[in-house]
Amino acid sequence: MEYKDHILSEAIRLVFLESRRQRGLTQNGLSLRSNITRQFISQVEVGKRLPSINTICALANAYNKSLSQLFYEVDRFYPLIEKKRRPFKIPANIAAETRQKLIEYINNAQKQQDSASTKPPPSGNCPGQ
Fold first, then answer.
1. Enclosing H/E stretch for 91
2. Whole-angstrom Cα distance, residue 36 to residue 62?
3. Interior CA angle at 89 toward 13 and 43, to 5°?
4. For residue 4, what is the DSSP state?
5. CA distance linking residue 49 with residue 31, whole number of Å
6. Per-residue burial over 34-50, b = 16 or more CB atoms within 10 Å of its CB, e = otherwise
7. Those residues with Cβ within 8 angstroms of residue 37's Cβ, 6 or more apart along the chain or in another chain
8. Would you give the distance in Å from CA 110 to the centre of its chain?
9. Per-position pLDDT tens, the chain of length 129
10. CA-CA 20 to 30 A from 115: which of 4, 28, 74, 104?
11. Closest C-alpha among 71, 64, 59 to residue 12
C-alpha cells in the first residue's frame, strides 16, 4: 500500500485523539502520564504537528498500548479517510458549541484534503524530496 501524507497525518491524529478519549484522559492528564507538553498534544490532535517515533512511544505507554496496536488502528482509519467516510460519530452528549466546532473542523479538513489531491504530487518517492 502506498500511503499519502495528508491521509496518514489525519489517521494518526484521529488515533491519538480517540485513544486519549477512550482512556478518559484530558490533554493535561495525558501530558502528565506521557511527559509531553499539553500544547504539543493539542497540536497533534488538531493536525498541526506530527509526533516523532519517540513521542509515539511515550503516548503508546500512556495509553497502555503497544506500537503495533497504535499502528494497527492507524491502518484501520486510513482507508476510511481515503474514501471520505467519517471514521467516528460525534457523540450526542457533547456541548452544542463543541459539536459545531468538530463539524467545522471535519469539513475544513475535507476541503484541504480535496484541494491537496488536485495538486500534482512532488517529484521523488519520499516526502520532502
1. none
2. 10
3. 20
4. P
5. 16
6. bebeeebbeebbebebe
7. 31
8. 14
9. 677 888 888 889 989 998 999 899 999 999 999 999 999 999 999 889 999 999 999 999 999 999 999 999 988 888 888 887 555 566 667 777 877 777 777 777 766 666 655 554 443 343 443
10. 74
11. 71
Residue keyed to cell 492528564: 29
Global pTM value: 0.61
**Are residues 78 and 9 in contact, defined by beta-carbon separation less than 8 angstroms?**
no
Q: Which of 21, 38, 48, 40 is closest to 109 using CA atoms?
A: 48
Please name the helix (run of DSSP H) or strand (run of DSSP E) that holds residue 90, with its range, or none. Answer: none
> Residue 26: what residue type?
T
Half-sphere exposure of residue 23, counting CA atoms within 13 Å on the CB side? 19
Read off the C-alpha cell for 32: 502528565
